[in-house]
Amino acid sequence: MIGSRHMASSSLLLSRRDLDFLLHQWLDAEELTRRPRFAEHSRETFDAVLDLSEQIATRHFAPHNKKNDQQEPRFDGERVHTVPEAKQALDAFTKADLLAAPMDEELGGMQLPQLVTTACFSFFQAANVGTSAYVFLTLGNARLLCEHGSREQIDTYVRPMLAGRFFGTMCLSEPQAGSSLADVATRAEPQQDGSYRLFGSKMWISAGDHELAENIVHLVLARIPGGPPGVKGLSLFIVPKHLVGADGSLGERNDVVTAGLNHKMGYRGTTNTLLNFGEGAHTPDGAPGAVAHLVGEPHRGLAYMFHMMNGARIGVGAGAMALGYTGYLKSLDYARERPQGRPVAAKDATAPQVPIVEHADVRRMLLAQKSYVEGALALLLYCSRLVDEQQTAEREDERAHARLLLDVLTPIAKSWPSQWCLEANSLAIQVHGGYGYTREYDVEQHYRDNRLNPIHEGTHGIQALDLLGRKAVMDGGAGLVALGETIGQTVERALDAGGEAAELGAALQESWDRVAKVTARVWGTGDPAKALANATVYLEAVGHVVVAWIWLGQFLATAGHDDAFHRGKRQAARYFFRHELPRTGPQFDLLDSLDETTLQMDPDWF
């Protein structure tokens, strides 16, 4: 196929040159090796695992990306069937010990910094987001259990997951509840042996059924009878597809069954299921009900699940970035090779055509993509560095500062790439012209895959409510203050550098001052409904200011370098400040006006 050459080339997944710049020139990944947790690592080990990730992603994940899309999983009423290449790719991933990469050595992990792990895993998301989802969900599941599970639960479920024998899921949504977790109805009935039996249904469960591993470990939110109403009454349970014996052997089938598969416009390689718990299709130990084991304490399930959800939100942002990034590289490659038309000032109609990259509007589209995807990658790596800081920084005040920043940046790290790297995919199609929306080229699939990410793990609107309704005001606005101080430090460096850097720094400071004033303005009403009516506008405006800050940091990191790569970085920063940051002005004006147009719209008027 015409598009196969594009997917087969590792250079068209992500830019390794960009990753090296961000990891080492900007974020100083090697500094982490001075900390006890990462002392066994070096620049060489970081580079080696990046090389390995790129190789496996290119050889095992990328080649079946189109097949995954065209031959999506099917359910025959008893079993779910996936393409054989998916299992081969996942086996290669787990045999390389990449699933355990960031985990403790005691669990067989590499203790790789999250900063480097995110960079490595981005190759797999760019190569094949459908197949890679199975292992990323498993890693999130394992991390949650390591944090909140018992030693027995870690030994029984986490160790086999990190070895690739078991895969994991998260089961939150229900058909009648959707994103409103207060309405979760699945119930967990206590048993005399200390276990529980679950009864209920869960919807939109990614990786909920397959035969890619020996077992599937579901983490399920459910209610114990007599608990408080709403989200305060949710508890978290381990529900394995097959029961696990004390010696680790697989036992009988648990009472959890697939009712059907959801067929989505993208991510088609990832099974997406409606699961029924306790319908009596199976009777473990001779009784109906899915055997379940409580994680931690009763009624604290949502707090525990947020450990996985917050990581998943950053992971969704990373997936959106990776899809946008590979689409950008493929459209850039196409634009350099596709001859069409002549310069606007050309007089000779018989002159040879020029590659379309010579046309200003094509360069505009490519530069926009570059600013979105490279900005998103930098943002996500910065957030990953914060994960490392909150876990390993020497002083408690440093760890607390990292937690504050990560809390306020998480909704942006999820939603900004999901919105703007999707726009990058749209521009990649446009650069390809008529070929862009044909299935022979990869970019139309990248767009369809990426369109799911504004909905995955809390929709765009939910992230907006989280940012403005919780993160911006919690602890007296401490998170927003911490972010403002950190941005201010970058601005100071830019002002000290003088020249163009100082101009960009001044523009960023002006934008951040508006963030602070608008936040105070909308909450000054004392009416949460009015304050949150335009929360999505707030998310988008603040997100653009944050990414402008990220671009200023990259601009400063290019000082003293004048090759094509660094010039391109500076030009992308200029583009973002001149073309993108000004978008926020009208948005802040709208927020400042306390506009109630949407709030006052009567449902009967539609």
TrEMBL record:
Keywords, alphabetical: FAD, Flavoprotein, Oxidoreductase
Span of domain Acyl-CoA dehydrogenase/oxidase C-terminal: 300-466
SUPFAM superfamilies the record matches: Acyl-CoA dehydrogenase C-terminal domain-like, Acyl-CoA dehydrogenase NM domain-like
InterPro entries attached to this UniProt entry: Acyl-CoA_dh-like_C_dom, Acyl-CoA_Oxase/DH_mid-dom, Acyl-CoA_Oxase/DH_mid-dom_sf, AcylCo_DH-like_C, AcylCo_DH/oxidase_C, AcylCoA_DH/ox_N, AcylCoA_DH/ox_N_sf, AcylCoA_DH/oxidase_NM_dom_sf
Skewed-composition ranges (Basic and acidic residues): 66-80
Keyword Flavoprotein: yes
Acyl-CoA dehydrogenase/oxidase N-terminal domain residues: 48-164
Cofactor requirement: FAD
Keyword Acetylation on entry: no
Domain Acyl-CoA oxidase/dehydrogenase middle: residue ranges: 170-272
Pfam family, one: Acyl-CoA_dh_C
Domain (Acetyl-CoA dehydrogenase-like C-terminal) ranges: 485-602
Positions of the UniProt region annotated as Disordered: 60-80
PANTHER family: ACYL-COA DEHYDROGENASE (PTHR42803), ACYL-COA DEHYDROGENASE-RELATED (PTHR42803:SF3)
Annotated family: Belongs to the acyl-CoA dehydrogenase family.
Protein name stated in the entry: Acyl-CoA dehydrogenase
Annotated source species: Streptomyces marispadix
